[in-house]
Amino acid sequence: MPRDNKTPLIQKIAKQAFVTFKGFKSSANGDNNFVADKSSELLTLVTAVRAADLKIAPRKTKQNSREAGLQSPPVTYMHICETEVFSMGVFLLRTGASIPLHDHPGMNGMLKVLYGKVSVRCFDKLEDNLSVGTALPDFEPPLAPFQTASLRRSVLRSVTEYSENSGPCLLTPVRDNLHQIDAVEGPAAFLDILAPPYNPDDGRDCHYYKLVKTVAEGETDGKSTEEQQGEEKVKAEETWLLEIPQPEDFWCGGEPYPGPAVSV
Question: Residue 20: what pLDDT?
Fold first, then answer.
């Protein structure tokens, strides 16, 4: 198939993403095996993509550019394409930058590192909203009464480092749907596919969270590693998240995508 060999890899990814996710119905109770069951071909294509395929490369940053760094966004986004079915683009993180803990309501996602290394912490919500009368633990520091409505019980699923040689990080509507992404040991970039795209009118808006500690968790700081590990197994890494406004030190800029044109 000589003609197919001339098709840029990113174009093949876009077409396959459209086919893979076309019939997906966004739902908070979606099938958490959707990606694994129906997207093996897409996973193969995304696993193969490299920075050179998109004509991007790590930037050389000047050591004495602290003032300029404070004025430039910690994260920028290169838009590649978007349809009603999926969106695709590249996030570029400066050295030390982080995309704060956030969610993807009713969405599937794939993250493939193009250069550098990122650490991804994935959480699942155990409940969307707390029931009236739910007994809450004591938090440290204490929360104001109005904040309890923004609390979510959750479980920490994984903390994993990804590089350009790693396979994609996957999320579904019910598994690993909340995550925080930190650049490790330098700048990093990753290809990002979300299906369907964010759309506040359809209930798919981005929410930010922070981890809150209970008084009991604070007391474990003085315990031995063996004692803490035993308790973690029993509690299955359950934790509490507090929904917060977008952090003031995080914002995302935009820049042109330099790679092959994509049409779907």
Answer: 94
